[in-house]
Structure formats: C-alpha cells, structure tokens
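Q: Joint fold for the lines below.
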Amino acid sequence: MFNTIGHSISLLVCPMFRTFIFSLFIRRTILLLLTGLYLAGCSSDGANSEIEEQVIDSSSEDNTTIQPEVDPFAFASGALLDSVVEVSCTLNDGSETSCYEFVIVGAPSTHEVGSFCPVDIFASADEVGIWFDGDGEVYDIDGQFIQNLPTLYNDSNWQLYDPDTGLVNVTDTLEKCDGAARPNVAAELQNHCVECSLDYVDGGISQTYTIPIQPVLAESPTSIGRDDVGLSLNGVAIAPPAPVDAILGAYTIAAFDDCAGHINPVAGYHYHGSAGCSEIEAESDGHAAKMGYALDGFGIYGMLDQQGNESSDLDQCRGHTDDVRGYHYHAASVEENMFIGCYSGKLAN
Amino acid sequence: MKKFISSTNLSSRNSSNRSCSKSCSKLSLLVALLLVSAAAVCHDGHHNKLAWQACDEKKQQASCSYILKTNRLHQGFCREVAEDLMCVRTQPIRTLSDNELSVFNPTKGVTSIEPSKLKNEADTKANN
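A: Joint structure:
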C-alpha cells in the first residue's frame, strides 16, 4: 500500500509524467463514470468489477479475451525522456486506432551499464561482461576465455591479446568502436574485443516507439525484421538478434555486459537478450515479471515464473494467453540471442 | 512505425555543463556517424548457428529441434527472425538423458529428429 502511494507520488512529482497523468486521469475518470452509470442501470450484480474490464476492452476486436492496455505507468522512473503522448495511428491492416508514443532515454535507468571487455588475460569473470556465440552458451569474457578463443572456434587466427604483455586488444576509442561495429572490419581492428562507451553517444540515444494502446491479435504473425522488437521498462531498446556469425567472422567479440546489452554508435545501448535486468514489474500471482513491450503492444515477460518454471504452451512467437495478462510474450533465454519469435499482434505503421 | 533518433534532445539534455566546442565537436561526429544507416552498421550472417541450421531446408512454421553441447534440447518452430529462418524455441529447455542422447549422433549439434520420435526410440533402446 505504502509502496503504491509512494510510487504514485513519485510519478506525480516527475515532470515527465505530470501532463500525461492529468490527461489520462481525466479521460479515464470520465470513461469510468459514464460506464459505471450505464452498468448501474442495466446490471446490479458485479457491475463494479466489470467496469475496468469493459473500459479496457472497449476497442478490442477480440471480445473473447480481456486484453489489458499498454500501461505507461509500468515504466521505471528515468526510463522515458519525454511525456507519453497519445496519438492517432494506423495499424498494418489499415485500421485506425490510438497509440502511445514512448521516447526512451536509451540507457538503462535501473542499472549501471556494466563492464564489457577484459583489460588483460588475467581478468576474472566478475570484472568483465559476457558473450553468446550462437552455440547456445553464455561465456564470461575473462582472461581465460580470451586465451581459449583459437580452441573454442577451432581457428588459429584468433589472437585477441598481446602475448608479450597480456593486454587485450580493446576498441577503446570512438573511432575504433565505430570501425569495428560495421561490416568489412578493417584488418587493424580485427582481433579486437569491441566495446563502446555511453560517452560516445552522449549518455544514450533516445528513440521513439509508437505502440497501439490496445493491442490487437493479427490473423497471422508478422516476422521480426532488423529493427528493434520493442522497448524495455527501464528505457532500453529491445533489439533483434545480434549477428554473431559476422561478428566472429571478423575475429571480433562484440562484448555484452552482464545484462546482455552493448553499445554501438548508431543504436546506443540496447539489449540482445533477456538477462533479467529489466524485469522490474513483478506479478503478484507468481507469474514472471514484465520486462517491456513489443512493438505490437503486447507485454514481454521474463522466461521463468517465480518458481523457476517455463510455460509449455507458447506459440511460435513465444506468446500465450492467460486470464490476468491476456495475450503476452515470454522472452527466450540469453543464450538464444532473441526475445520473441514474431509479432502476434498488429503493428502501428 | 514512426521511429527516429533524437540527437537534438540528447544534445540539449546535457548542454548546460558542457562547453560549446566540445558539444559541437561531439555532435558533428555523432551526426556523421548517424548518416551511416543502421543496416550498414549491422553485420550480416546468422544469429544463432544451431537454431539456424535446425531450420535449414525447412519452411516457416515447420517444427524444429536442436541439441546444445550441454545436452539441452530446444524444440520449437521455424520462424524468420532478422531475415534468417531460425528455430524459435517454444517448449521448456530439457536436458536429455544418456539414453535419449544415444539415439542421436554423439557429436550432438543439430538434429531434425522429432521430439516424439526421440522419446520412443530412447524408450525402445532402454527396454532392449
């Protein structure tokens, strides 16, 4: 209770939310009053418990399942750069609806950006980040990992460190970081552990996402392309899978921090896997915590529930439906280098 | 989807405690970098070797499975993700027993054997 009040107060005093909250409050209050009056006139049994659901489901095409709207209050303090704005939008089936425009900060508001590359071959696991290579493993990029690269990838051309000094080749300038984070990596930047600083992008690259307020299931799924898949509740882009094959092909390791995020000069900090760092919206029924929203407006939750179990009824997009959350996704594990398999819902154009 | 990179907001956000020359220099560099499209910066190539190989010569929505080095079985369906046809896992990860593993190539890696067949063959082998 106190946490709820405190959260509400903190939102109210935050200028970013003030305008939005006021307009949303007025809109919802009127809707609730009107709906309540209507229901009071035609139903006397359980009308109050129906009000919220009736309002939430008012724009849904699928009335068989209650589908919660996108919750702008689920975002962590400091995750959004600007006020959430409600705009008219057109979905990819041509229908008109309302969307929220979220402007994320582009840097995690709930955790520090962690370490990436080791300084030398003596670095321990707690000093460095992680790497997943498409073989389903997650490695700590410690000194041993760096030394073991020729064996791991069965290629003697791997030489990420100076054998005389033990120092690891790290892209420690903007120019090097930019040069190594693109196709056709120059020879002098091959055999480098690639890391970039948030300072290179002035602390983060904000991005705007337009998401249907009321998500609607599509007749058939939409494939995930090379654009972001969604946004996390702590203000970070949820990126498509990292192209680990090409990264390894250039004899580079594009190091992730322990939250499975890394930085490049174009996208800034972004997640390539769900490591639990953005699962901040706890569920009271033992369900996995919410970590963000996909572009179609459906929530993305952690892979495991609070008992450590994973759902066995996920569809091809890694989504399913329950009575509390309606349709929603569950992120894959970090080593799978993806969050969801496709979009089940309609996307805003 | 309307999507843009707001360098203006970023530059104004921190302008109060930065010198003009430093900001201008960084902004110029940032703008130059932003001119490079995201597609150009992204590398090509597959995104998950085993998940990719598991859907080799399969079509979208076909069932698929693969086994990791650590004997963990992934089962799901082939979906196009970032322009690759990949095996998207839809079932909980299961660690295979030795009996189940013996049905497969002992070098592990990719398998196209259906999970139901896997269990039946493992059971048969165990009974024999």
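Q: Anything notable?
A: Residues 1-22, 29-43, 106-112 of chain B have pLDDT under 50 and may be disordered. The two ends of chain B are 58 Å apart (CA to CA).
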